[in-house]
């Protein structure tokens, strides 16, 4: 795109669009939750939850996305504000008592860390199973290599977001504990690893949110990759379109950022902008439409994804509306995820049977252009497992599943079956069906040889 022409032809943006970014953190919680109509005890419980899990929101979300007349039941409010019952009651009470006593920060952190340790802060073995090494010896910080063709990179300046989602599976990145963080500032290590591993064709910048970084910082990470011949695509995982679309329209470096996107595309590589939209409300503003138009004008492809979250988007009509709107705006629906087995999963998770019902209810009502979406998909230890349906085989009710991605690439696309369980909410809640003793990604259990022993010799 021509940015000069783009600026001249751009529609006028709302007066609020040019406001400077302002973040609200836990120190603002009491005031904001009072605005939502919460009583004193409820506000204290919210503060207790926010002592364990991260909270951050911004002026755009506060002023443009939340319907305060409907709070605290408004989906956008629930998307960013901790809920009093997101954690076990005993844990919330324990922290609340410390807050009432004005306990020292050190004591609060100690108790908060005890609670965090119970929340599976690093699901799918990401701290040890996915860490790549240079020369097979030196572990590379801030990188994950789970699937043959894709490497994830966590730039250290991108380990925060414009706002935090209450369901976020990367919550451990944001609680201020160094031992829980994945991050790296060593792009030269990434380049070396890519050259040593030519099977890697795609790099995903993630975090946090890479788009929290200014253009000058992003360029230092992205531009060296343009010289890696075996790299075919660069992906940027971001919530910025939903939480701060000004980043691509009115921020001081918006035009420079779009020029960087242009350079990626001009280099012959695909630039995939992995946009997270959790609710249709995030798509409604003129500012988002303009940001999408400008990003697409660079040649980047915007793909959309989000998890299915109880109390926020657990209705077929919500997903149908999102996918239809995204297609109309020129974006490509990509994934519906299942809430991962970390953090407040027990609060937000939707059972797999209900998840499939919601997915199918939306999927059947959209055109083929929106049926690029895959789901419900679980990003679990063996890979991305998709629930394809519920059926009956030989008198047994089963889930039909397959691996969209897998640590073992030979398993990709191969169907398998699990016993139907209406309460199962995650892969590890399931059991093999149809007489199988294990799933394809598991080793066969030891054979029971007791029946082969001659009773006379036992």
From TrEMBL:
<keyword id="KW-0408">Iron</keyword>
<dbReference type="GO" id="GO:0051539">
    <property type="term" value="F:4 iron, 4 sulfur cluster binding"/>
</dbReference>
<keyword id="KW-0411">Iron-sulfur</keyword>
<keyword id="KW-0663">Pyridoxal phosphate</keyword>
<dbReference type="GO" id="GO:0046872">
    <property type="term" value="F:metal ion binding"/>
</dbReference>
<keyword id="KW-0004">4Fe-4S</keyword>
<dbReference type="InterPro" id="IPR007197">
    <property type="entry name" value="rSAM"/>
</dbReference>
<dbReference type="InterPro" id="IPR003739">
    <property type="entry name" value="Lys_aminomutase/Glu_NH3_mut"/>
</dbReference>
<dbReference type="GO" id="GO:0003824">
    <property type="term" value="F:catalytic activity"/>
</dbReference>
<protein>
    <submittedName>
        <fullName>KamA family protein</fullName>
    </submittedName>
</protein>
<keyword id="KW-0479">Metal-binding</keyword>
<keyword id="KW-0949">S-adenosyl-L-methionine</keyword>
<dbReference type="InterPro" id="IPR058240">
    <property type="entry name" value="rSAM_sf"/>
</dbReference>
<dbReference type="InterPro" id="IPR013785">
    <property type="entry name" value="Aldolase_TIM"/>
</dbReference>
